[in-house]
């Protein structure tokens, strides 16, 4: 049986995650490898040190390859950073051919027409995402191929980024020995792993709060209405804690994960936590409420910025399915409630499907909170990249073969436990 390999590479500010999937001719998907490596060559989602990034990519890929028992030569690579901008654009063409039946070439021409937008010489277009097609004035068409018409229009969502930032990301991957199948906007990938089709149809906003960026993507009537990457995330919370509680950043990171909470009035006045002093020599007792009082304004700022993005899209009733949070920093206690208070939307935390029990075996203790399991929410982008790759690779022939997140990850997480015990 012929199988093809699809690799997702999430190059985050705090961790790099490589995921290798095997896809059979019948489109059965099996995740066969995962590799994680700490990332320290990025700032706010942007590559600032190619050597360090290359090194970390190599390490993550090698771990994934060892698990998979095979080498990979290309990957779908995630991108974020505040340089990413999005714009909605319209294209229109006359349908060619005597039959007036819409062909692939007509669809490509209308998408090209929509691409004629202001792009500075420093920018490149990353995605042209069709929101709907309009045939002879009739809107709401998702797949116009084979339909009859004279005038074909398209509404698109176009995502562009600064060329040098894209190139530095691509360079890091190439130097690690892989070619790049496609550079994919991270929230677009995460949305594939975390959101249901029903939520996208109703209208929903996904917020991926990572270490260096908070990525926002809004769906309305099944299509992308807005995307944005905000240059703030969990690392800023840790830095605030380091300054506020006078402790090293590495200690602040641990305290945040172990004891952090985002609604300070919920925290008992008598709750105490032990904190390393800035010198790193002695430990002091501080109130947990104080910790929460440092975290709350920064997380509040993040949700206020998200609210501003939503205000750009339109009235709040455009997203009746509410807000879905994912990414590592979404796991802080009570973050759903703070997000809901600020944005006035119902909020849930979203993650790819999961088999529990990884906390004893994952190698990075910083990600382990009390006796909890390893957070699934940090895998949303990597799982989404694999799904994006499977659904968009040339070998895929029909949209009927599309896999949803549940099918991909049920397999992934059921295997993960064995892999982690073997390799971490
Ligand atoms: N259990 C937890 N509770 C609170 N915060 C957590 C938890 N686990 C991870 N984090 C925080 O989540 C952040 C990392 O999240 P994630 O792995 O999604 O980011 P990333 O993908 O590396 O970064 P980015 O997407 O911003 O480039 C860090 O700030 C970390 O402190
Ligand atoms: Mg991320």
TrEMBL record:
GO BP field: FtsZ-dependent cytokinesis
SMART domains: FtsA
Keyword vocabulary terms for this entry: Cell cycle, Cell division, Cell membrane, Membrane
HAMAP family reported for this sequence: FtsA (MF_02033)
Record function comment: Cell division protein that is involved in the assembly of the Z ring. May serve as a membrane anchor for the Z ring.
PANTHER family, sorted: CELL DIVISION PROTEIN FTSA (PTHR32432:SF4), CELL DIVISION PROTEIN FTSA-RELATED (PTHR32432)
Listed name of the protein: Cell division protein FtsA
Species assigned in the record: Halanaerobium hydrogeniformans (Halanaerobium sp. (strain sapolanicus))
